[in-house]
Design brief:
The structure is a single chain. The protein is an alpha/beta fold and 262 residues long. It has 2 domains: 208 residues, NAD(P)-binding Rossmann-like Domain (Rossmann fold), CATH 3.40.50; 35 residues, no CATH class. Helix content is 47%, strand content 14%. The chain has a 7-stranded parallel beta sheet, sandwiched between helices. Helix 4 links the parallel strand 4 and strand 5. The protein is globular and about 55 Å long. The two termini are 29 Å apart. The model has no long low-confidence stretch (mean pLDDT 96). It holds the Pfam family adh_short_C2.
């Protein structure tokens, strides 16, 4: 299927590896130009070289830094001639017991996983509407749909973003001008973050890493972990010309893990 995004410009956050990188790859292979952001300059430049190899005709720019910082956001926005597609993404806050979290822990989580995406959206959607095309995808978490007790910081901050998007995405001045905003909720994808979590569980429980990893895998009805490539392909479709009638949705990609009907 021709997605109709050849020549479009995309800003993809946290794109040096994992799900963000998968999204950048899929967009570039569909002919989009991308500005990619991540904290590590070295990993970011390696990913940029990889993307240029995938599609030599695409323009690939990099902006290293923490996207939660005002100066990094401004640099990322300025690096893009125009932003037609925005993919917000950031690593989640650490797990733990809410009794141990300070007020600052909560503020930091909200800043990274709620306020930062909102600031990026605020900076881009009106210009998208004026041009008659825009796609915003927020990479959140399956924990928004089925909260995980030890991920309270993430549950809270990402749910706040979800509620905000539910209202914003339905504004006629946006969706009526072909600007859609949706959230992608990943479950267990085979990323560095998942592997790090599994290693931490193995170390604290005395179990082997392989045993913990296999236990995770068997808990997924599909009996496997998702890949960044398939996540990126789904994201690219949501960014397509054909996806203009879908907005304000929270779409689970979790291999069937969520047990509910709704």
């Amino acid at each position: 299927m021709e997605l109709g995004i050849t020549g479009r410009w995309a800003l993809v956050c946290a794109a040096s590896k994992g799900l963000g990188k998968g999204c950048a790859e899929a967009l570039v292979m569909e002919g989009a130009n991308v500005v990619i952001n991540a904290r590590s300059s070295k990993a970011l430049e390696e990913t940029a070289a990889h993307l240029r190899h995938l599609n030599p005709a695409a323009s690939i720019y990099t902006v290293a830094g923490d996207i939660a910082l005002v100066e990094t956001r401004q640099a990322a926005l300025e690096a893009c001639p125009q932003i037609d597609i925005l993919i917000t993404n950031a690593g989640g806050p650490p797990p733990g017991d809410f009794r141990d979290w300070s007020r600052q822990d909560w503020l930091d989580a909200i800043d990274v996983n709620m306020v930062t995406p909102i600031e990026l959206i605020k900076a881009t959607v009106d210009a998208m509407a004026s041009r008659g095309f825009g796609r915003v995808i927020n990479i959140t978490s399956a924990a928004v749909k089925a909260p995980i007790d030890i991920l309270g910081l993430s549950n809270g901050a990402r749910s706040g973003l979800t509620g905000f998007i539910a209202g914003l995405s339905r504004q006629p001045q946006l969706v009526g001008r072909n600007v859609t905003i949706n959230n992608l909720l990943p479950g267990s994808f085979d990323t560095d973050r998942l592997r790090s979590t599994q290693k931490g569980i193995a170390q604290s429980s005395g179990r082997s890493y392989e045993d913990v990893r296999d236990s995770f895998r068997r808990s997924v009805p599909s009996q496997r972990f998702g890949t960044a490539e398939e996540f990126g392909a789904f994201c690219a479709f949501l960014c397509s010309a054909q996806a203009g009638y879908m907005t304000g949705q929270n779409i689970l990609l979790d291999g069937g893990s969520y047990p509910g009907a709704y």
